Amino acid sequence: MPDTGNASGAPIPTVGTNDALYWNANARIADRVEDLLGRMTLAEKVAQVTAVSLRDSTSAEEGLAGKVNAVRSGIREGIGQIENTFDPRAPGDSAREVNDLQRLLRESTRLGIPALVGSECAHGHAGFNSTVLPVPLAMACSWNPELVEQAFDMAAREARARGAHEAHTPVLDLGRDPRWGRMEETFGEDTYLVTRMGVAATAGLQGGRSGNPGRTHVVAAPKHFAGYGQVVGGRNFAATPVDTRTLRDEVLPPFEAVVKDVKVQGMMASHCDVEGVPAHGNRWLLTGLLRGEWGFEGMVVSDYNDVPRLAYFQHVVETVEDAAALALSAGMDLDLPVGEGYGRLLEVIRTRPELEQFLDFSVRRILRLKFMLGLFEDPFVPVIGAEQSAGCAEHVALAERLATESIVMLKNHDDLLPLDLIKLATICVIGPNAASPAVGNYTAGTDRTTSLLDGVRQRAGSTIQVDYAEGCSIPRVSWDGKQSVLLQAPLADEEAAIAEAVARAAAADVAIVCVGGSTQTSTEAFFVDGIKGDRATLGLLGNQRTLVERVAATGTPTVIVLMGGRPFSIPEIARLPVSLLNTFYLGETNGRAVAKILFGDLSPSGKLPVTIPRSVGQLPVYYSQKAISHYKDYLDEEPGPLFPFGFGLSYGRFSYSDLVLEKTTISAGEDLGFSVTIENTGGRPAAEVVQVYFRDCVASVVRSAKLLIRFQKVQLDPGVRRRLRFSITPREDLAFTGIDLTRRVEAGAFELMIGSSSADIRLQAHFTLSPSP
User: Fold this and answer.
1) What are residue 547's phi and psi, to 5 degrees?
2) CA nearest neighbour of 610 among 686, 708, 678
3) Are 11 and 5 in contact (CB under 8 A)?
4) Which run of H or of E encompasses 749?
5) Residue 612: what are its φ and ψ, rounded to 5°?
6) What is the pTM of this model?
């Protein structure tokens, strides 16, 4: 029987004609929303908080047509969002498919409400042959928020050109446990760096800081709100025991910043619980904090299938119907990807009509975005626009620039780098990642990827011989239908291949060895029994260490290039007489970017956004722990990390001098300005990231030993010096959660530390914050 009323049985106004107020583009959005909401049946409202997916659970044999038919049958009452993540189609086909579905909604549903189209844009729009950027962990190595904003602006334009309106991006979790398979999705371990990168990414996606993506950009839905990256043991879906001060001072600030500074219009809730209450059913988190304290006006979307998991995973309710009611009343607006929980709201609200008010709240927020995006005026996209935008030369050039700035030089033995092509006759490129086209996990792929081997061959030209040998494999992961199984080749099986690679290296002028991980050995461990993606160890899997050690033993000058989605603990390799480059997945221009650094076209300028431990036994090792955390070292391990947060070498040399504070005593209401001079004393143009840290000398609670508070990337020619000025605001930058759990800044002494990394402090100064009158 068709639904003709709301839960109370009141009649619903007819849709009328296109003269209805909600079709009037000149009317206020709030008025259009109320007019349309008043015309909707309960079933039509429920449809607006649910989704269908082009990646639905149809069998592979059915092919794309089967998936499209499943979507078409699921939008008879309209739909809130169509999920088109990891779109495998060519750009033009993407546009055609979305246009067909929007046309169906306009012409074949009672109210003609268009759908939002959801996407992923973690490192470029996740559609086949869209421009693939470096993964977020690599982007963070650039320490260049302005460039990151440009990159996400580009990604949003490509996504919108293919019909997308919302992106489940960026990840604002703190990446502090490198065992976690989702490290590559984060911007690193530090709250301030993640905040700066997150604000840049969000502004890029939404086309600025106005909060209105308009008709060219997309709604950003940062994730995972909140605390998901703090899973114990680095295990996906594990508990997140975060105390209130850590939550308030370290985990929440990136999310608060994108709400207040960029007016973000989306938010994706976390898989995890917050102080024991699952995020998807946490009214304090989704309504009290997010909307009440911060003033968020957009929509909250679920992480995939987490509404029903309130019942069958977290067990805070008995049934999926109860889960839907709990999530809706908590402030969860849209149930992704297929509305398994909210699809039951029609019956739930008929038995509990008091829930309809919460449904109306969510529908209003979703409709508001559809009007804001201009979808009622024109939900269609030009096919030619999608084809011309995706992967165009301008966008690929931007991706390459970001990739080059994301490479971190960890060691330059005997100043081997940059390599001088004039002095080389033979280069041997070795390793299981040397010819790899891998670009990370959150992409639908491209046919333009340049491997390291490709990049070296292109840069070396025809006059230099470039040999290649794989040497050994990276263990692969097999799925037998029940368990993920790591299959590692015994050394005996790869002895011949390693011997061949070593022989080729011995005969070459230089060896470039590319080792690391794969998208199988560092990946999201999905919510399926037996699926694994996290690591218990952080060394190189398989026989890679053996390969590196034997190549180094030949005496041939050797460069090790690390490639993967997480930091690697490689103290044995770091001690070898080799040079060392770290590259988290650099996107489609990987090989060209690395070649430019190897051969000196550009100087490396990346800095680590994470601390690299010597071993798993040191975890947690992130730099900003409380001072007492570093009081004692381990008996059986060298002190300190293998490479500290903020570390990265350059072909330039930089001196720091003349740190001057404009005042040495300030009140809480005053800004503190200070300046420093930096000079490139080396012989090559290069960029340095000047990092500013502070320490609260005495506080009423135990605070971090050191906290990043400002940074600036500066490009200098040889012999050039520049005066940099910074300013901090005590009530924002020095505040913390006090004993009474309120945000405060306390009078007393503070220390400023300026340097090239968290462990390389060049200049220090003290100032005093005077007591409030």
Assistant:
1) -60, -50
2) 708
3) yes
4) strand 748-757
5) -100, 120
6) 0.95
